[in-house]
Design brief:
361 residues, alpha/beta, four-stranded mixed β-sheet, disordered N terminus
Length: 361
Amino acid sequence: MLKRRIFPSLKWTVSVLVAGTYLAIAPTAAFAQRLKVATKALPPFVIVEPQATPPITGYSIDLWDKIADRLGVDYEFIEYDTVQEALDAVAKGEANLAIAGITITAEREKALDFSFGFYETGLQILVLDEAENPLFSFIFYAFSWETVRAIAILFGMAMVSAHLVWFFERHDNPDMFPQTYREGIWEALWWSLVTATTVGYGDKAPKGVVGRLIAISWMLGAIFVVTYFVAQITANRLESGISGPEDLRSKRVGAVANTTSAAYLRREPVKLIEYQKIEDTYEDLRQHQIQAVVGDAPLLLYYASQNPDLRVVGRLFEKQQYGIAFPEGSPYRESVNRIILELKENEEISELDAKWVPASE
């Protein structure tokens, strides 16, 4: 577990209690120390720019600055390579708390305590926003799961109709529907398909009453079957082939290990590729090593807003809450919870939303 850099806070301990001002103060001994705040670069929640002043900014940084101001504590940020490393530091007592874009989960609650959620989000999908090669688009269109399924349904219904017509016409109409199974079914299938597609060459037609009733039923039913077929293949988008979580089936999808994104994808029929850093998923997406990235919506929206070659698609799914992680029994947790509620009530949280998180399309 490597600490990459340490940032001193710009706030110093508040020692004066102004009458009428709300300060959530815990026991003096517990609040006297300089807090170590573990974090991880996750724009727009934590943005690290060592040469800038201040060197660390973002949604979560502004939020903690407001909380620390009300608590009256001094602190320093310690940046870790991954969220898991930051959480491990808190669990081992190397840091007093962790804040970034940290999802509250039942698994993490086993070793840590969390504050109330300060930001509600979910997962979304990041894809390349570039023109597809026409040949690739046609191949994807022709051999996609939706197209294959639609063709299978059409062919299956045509086979049922062909067997029924051949069975009832083979004796009274052997010229058009031969009595031998192989030749008879072939001719009946030809009739069934041209009838379904409204081509209707007229070279074959049932003569018996039952055969014609079957033909009428098939002609009417074929309208719905063909409509379904056209709707399915039309709905199959030619851009990236991904417009929501249901389109990830059999795709190569990247996600950061030990996150809610990876946990979700492990339950789905996708080819999951796990990474240690989200930046690596972006690079592999550009190199076509993966076809999509699944991650927390605000992180993907922020990155896409800075990189026009990428875009976020689909609805929000697997909703979740971001919170502040504390070691079990932390004396700060209750006071921080009260402050988070206060910030929500006076709409300071909403101001952070508007300031830092790009709006979804």
